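INTERNAL TRANSFER SHEET
From: sequence group
To: structure group
Subject: Aminopeptidase

Please process the attached sequence and return the structure record in the designated field. Keep the field labels unchanged so the import script can parse them.
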Amino acid sequence: TQHILYISLDKISSAAENIHVVATNGLPFPWSKLRLPNYIIPIHYHLLIHPNLTTMRFNGSVKIEIDVKNNTNWVVLHSKNLEITAATVLDESEAHLFDKALPVLEYPPHEQIAIFSPKILTSGEKYFLYLEFSAALSDGFFGFYKSSYRTKDGETRVLASTHFEPTSARMAFPCFDEPIFKANYSVRIRRGPSHIALSNMPVEHTVELEDGLFEDRFEASVQMSTYLVAFIVCDFKSVSRRTVTGVDVSIYAVPHKWHQTHYALEAAVKLLEFYETYFNIYYPLPKLDLIAIPDFQSGAMENWGLTTYRETSLLYDPDVSSTSDKLWVTMVIGHELAHQWFGNLVTMDWWNDIWLNEGFARYMEFVSVEATYPQLKVEDYLLDTCFAAIGRDSLNSSRAISCSAENPTQIKEMFDTVSYDKGACILHMLRHFLTDDVFQSGIVRYLRKFRYRNAKNEDLWDSLCFICFYLKKMMHTWTLQKGIPLVTVKRKGTKLYIEQERFLKTVQPSDPLWQTMQTGFLWHIPLTYKTSHSHTEMRHILQTKSDVLVLDGDVDWVKFNTDMNGYYMIDYDAEGWSALIELLRVNHSAVSFKDRANLIHNAFQLVTAGRLPLDRALDLITYLKTETHNVPLLQGIGYLESFYKMIEKRNMPDVTQHLKTYILQYFRDVIDKQTWSNEGTVSDRRLRSELLSLACDLGYAPCLEKAKHFYHTWVKSNSTISLPSDVTETIYMVGAQDDSGWHYLLEKYGVSMSEAEKCKILSALASTRDSNKLLRLLELGMEGSVIRAQDLSTLIYTVARNPAGHFLAWNFVKKNWNKLVEKFQLGSFSMRNIIIGTTGQFSSKEELVNEFFESIRDQTSQLRVTQVAVENVEKNILWLERNLETLRTWLQQRLN
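Return from structure group:
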């Protein structure tokens, strides 16, 4: 055997002699690129998995039917942290081509293995690659990982679940782990009698094995990418219902949370039926499972037929969940079910176009929930989505929607605000431009043409309007270049002189860098506008640097970007802003609530960029005393609150006190109108929750007294009475400010069976001004038993927003950086949340974070988020330099 092996290794060396990549055993590795060769295509995986929930290990085997395109001795595929215990190649009749196991080379930097075949694999012939493997269940949140939960009796139970997107299927079984390599999967899972096994497809039949184990054999899947494969072994309970087209929908959760699954079942059935109608394509699998995993890093994952969720994204408890919790659950389900078509049925060619998955799914949340649950008023949140996108896109560190991403860290970073939120907003703009019907029929055409296949950016534009040759050219200006355009409007009589430029918040036209950062940027912008004399929206496509529009006679005002259906900023001349400020003061209902929120956002973004004086934006929102819609009201108050939070940390007691006094005096009427109940529409309840939280945070005495009364009554009842769910978090926050209240809430956190309630308690615990308590929370989050690791990134972010935790959180991150990277993986949403969350409030040159990022340059050189963090701090420094004195003077004048 030894002699034969040496001969094989000799052949390996000569076969790979021109390659300069070295495997772990010192031999040349036959492939040097990050992406796999395309001359071997997987057709069908026959996968056996056996997790042992006692030893926390798993073993398995995979037999992959492969199609060889070019003659070769090598099969190169992905594997990460797997011990390959056997490898061989079988012929078409599944007979062994070789007597001995084949050698396996490993190249961990690319997470690849190579199997050497002494006999050439011939193009056009059918072969099977057979591998046996084993590994420990992962400690983190990727690959095949372990999770646990505690029963009501305090017993800890273990389960094993998967999360493969984007590049972690290779941690569970050797595979061709790139989205282009779609294949069928036949899965078998071995388990004990007290557990169930779930996978993408229904169980075909179950076999009892000799050692008391059971083997569930699942139906063969449709063609899909590796990142969508899923399998779970657990002891969960479920509720089920069949849709009108015969799809079995089930919601799974830990047994004692079974009663929290019923709303998700209702929503999933309704949303699935909506999508089948909207896309005019039946959901192609016989079943759809939605399962709440106790340990889950992101919000949810769209595995085909077995979608996985964080518990807060799926479970709804009417006794403790708020109206915002209900909306969140509905939107997340809407997102993952949209993926069953966008992403699963049609998949992007490569991760550079992940926005084709995520931008569409984010946008379809709004389309689907508005159609199925109009009472939830989901359209109120679309503006917030676009505001978030603009916040990132107006920094120079932004990126194009479709841009290069090669290694796993770069690929993980693609799952960001640009892919999700900007993607959704340009699709919304496009839908408005094309009309709803044209947009919908184009989507159906796209899905039908590319189903079970992969697509690129331009394939979508071709499908959306196959007779509109202009559309592709237009949309490339939105997807292939970064940033957001600013359209400046100058009015002279009946003429509007419009120009476009790139909108940047940290660089002004007077800066020498400004011109460089503008070079080459040009968008094709579908402008919309209304005037004081027009009853209908007017349209114009701006595809040059400047243009002139002619109005129908003299008008009092012009408002561009009607209902904020477009993704662009507007700056008016002084007279234009004056007219709009006066319009809001005299007759704000002359424009829609979306237009009013858009004007507020637009004005304060221009202030940040140094394009509009702060006092003009503050004058604009003085009309809010008469505003009745929650979206513009919360937008305006939100800016005042963000200024307060930043200045509070700068030790400027006069401005801090004046701003607090102004907010409480100016908005007292609307605050005093709020009831401590769950009454009213969804919009009423959202406003109540936000306003009372702010009023108590600013120390408004009537608010504090009411919250304390609720809190003490709740404690006296041993927390058996139900608090109004929309104000529960505010009540907890007030209760957490003294020592006994904080410790009582920490105890309640440990025993609560509702994740929605635990989120509210944790937020309250992190609001204490006691730095020792804040540090204890962070340490509990790092340790992971009382506070789960999945909640650590949000906890760090929440502590950082607290003036007492401002530096504490950042120092904690610096001290524990390597542990955090190991826990969450570089480039992940959690690491981005931690970096942006802890640095986002810094606003002085002493707080610039470059020094720390330089010290870990070997890691951060791969990361785009560190550039975002640095630029955010620079933006805050500039804001204070430009606006602090203006704010101080304006407040003094108003209060006097």
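Handover comment: Residues 1-10, 13-18 have pLDDT under 50 and may be disordered. The longest helix spans residues 865-895.
Transfer complete.
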